[in-house]
Amino acid sequence: MLERHELEAFLTLAEELHFGRTAERLHVSTARISQTIARLERRTGVPLFHRTSRRVELSLVGRQMYEEMRPAWSRITDAFERAVDAGRGLSGLLRVAFNGPAAGQLLVGVTQAFRARHPDCEVQIREARLPEVLPWLRDGEVDLALTCFPTDGEGVVMGPVLVREARMLAVPAGHPFARRATVSVEDLARVTVLRIPEALPEPPRRDRTPDRAPDRTPAGRPIAGRPVVPGPSARTFNEVLTLVGAGEGVFTVGAHARRYFARPDVVYVPFEDAEPVEWGLVWLADGATARVRAFGEAALDLVQAPAAPVP
């Protein structure tokens, strides 16, 4: 098997046909090139170059060896350069998914900030339903996604929390809870809670459709922790709200739903004692390229920037 330095010495000398220029290109001594070529010739058993005091020429075997090796070596070096560009480069294409209109609006702002920093990198934005986020990441359809937390899974990285919003309960307009100022997490044990697809990992399913009300509030107050009555399953958020409006159950949502999903048949009631809904970027651990990291930095800088003063 040839070593890399042997390949480079042979291919470069075959192109330069001059030991001095070959040494300069490879940043080694002329003696090192001579020794390497002599070692290759001993291993092959035939001369690879014909040398005189005035010129260097490829032998018949050397020319055949060069013509067969050069295309393969070019493919190897090109593949390596593409891998380096994918891992460390800040040009090319970055594909980002978002889940829901609020996330889409935030993602547009992040994309603008990222493009201002890295104009050579194109950003492609796609909307994904919640069950599609992890499959798209694992299938390589997108490089990262802006979605609600938790989005745990094997090999999945959750970046810093970008947005925290109040948790609310979507209830039918005619439901008794619709007339209340707030609800409690304990109230979940008194209603039917709609389900999200079983295909989702357990953490997001438990966050939105728990099997039972918690034993304690976020402040530590003990509560009943009674089982929750499971309702029908829905595949999309609009399907969830349609089922809520039809009186099939209730569902926990983020406060943004009041703005982006206002409906006459659904009322959003704030929780008085629930943890907020958190949003952020997720990506695969082995896909943490320079582009992905730079996009995450742009997102964090954007949400942490002080608000502009009102004129």
UniProtKB/TrEMBL annotation:
SUPFAM superfamilies: Periplasmic binding protein-like II, Winged helix' DNA-binding domain. It holds the Pfam family HTH_1. The keyword Metal-binding does not apply. The keyword Transcription regulation applies. It comes from the Bacteria. Residues 1-59 form the HTH lysR-type domain. PROSITE patterns: HTH_LYSR. PANTHER family: HCA OPERON TRANSCRIPTIONAL ACTIVATOR HCAR, TRANSCRIPTIONAL DUAL REGULATOR HCAR-RELATED. Belongs to the LysR transcriptional regulatory family. This is LysR family transcriptional regulator.
